[in-house]
């Protein structure tokens, strides 16, 4: 006949719980940056428009297109498609852009480094026929 000894079992369970509490916590994993967007291109440049395309990481929740103005990078447009249609540009103006990616939450990634920048000049204003 086996006798039940609740006091001993509680003591053993308490010792295990104390042992777990004293065990060191695992080190937090460092977040990995997303891959930087690549192959940034300005296509179909006209006097007031250009189409921007780039290759993006599939873990990117959003891409941020930045424009360099007076030596400072400023956010210009955001999206999640790998392209931006720029339609309010000024004729005969030189533009410099780059793009970086923001990851989906909870995947263990941080923002990517920015892509290589690209510079292009819009065409001069069209001369109307008389």
Provide a descriptive summary of the structure in words.
The protein is mainly beta and 130 residues long. It has a domain at 32-121: Immunoglobulin-like (Sandwich). It has 1 helix and 9 strands. The chain has one helix at residues 6-22, and strands spanning 32-33, 38-43, 50-55, 60-69, 72-79, 83-86, 94-103, 109-110, 118-121. A 4-stranded antiparallel β-sheet has the order 5-4-7-9, with no helix packed on it. The protein has a 3-stranded antiparallel β-sheet with strand order 2-3-6, with no helix packed on it. The longest helix has 17 residues, at 6-22. The chain is elongated and about 55 Å long. 18% of the residues are buried.
Order of helices and strands: HEEEEEEEEE
Question: Largest sheet, order of strands side by side?
Answer: 5-4-7-9
Report how far apart the termini are: 114 Å
Query: How much helicity do the residues have?
Result: 10-25%
Q: What summary fits the major beta sheet? A: 4 strands, antiparallel
The total strand number stands at: 9
- Name of the CATH homologous superfamily of the domain at 32-121: Immunoglobulins
Under CATH, the topology of the domain at 32-121 is which? Answer: Immunoglobulin-like
* CATH architecture classification of the domain at 32-121: Sandwich
CATH class of the domain at 32-121: Mainly Beta
**Outline type:** elongated
Number of helices: 1
* Percent strand: 35-45%
Compute the CA-based radius of gyration: 28 Å
> Would you tell me the structural class of the helices and strands?
mainly beta
Residue-averaged pLDDT: 82
Unreliable parts: 2-21
């Amino acid at each position: 006949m086996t006798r039940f000894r609740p006091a001993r079992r509680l003591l053993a369970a308490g010792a295990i719980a104390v042992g777990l509490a004293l065990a060191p916590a695992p080190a937090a994993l460092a977040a990995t940056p997303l891959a930087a967007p690549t192959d940034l291109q300005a296509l179909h440049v006209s006097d007031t428009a250009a189409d921007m395309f780039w290759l993006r990481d599939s873990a990117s929740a959003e891409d941020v297109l930045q424009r360099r103005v007076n030596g400072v990078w400023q956010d210009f447009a955001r999206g999640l498609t790998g392209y931006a249609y720029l339609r309010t540009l000024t004729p005969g103006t030189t533009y410099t852009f780059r793009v970086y990616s923001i990851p989906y939450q909870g995947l263990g990634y941080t923002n990517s480094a920015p892509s290589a920048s690209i510079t292009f000049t819009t065409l001069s204003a069209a001369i109307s026929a008389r």
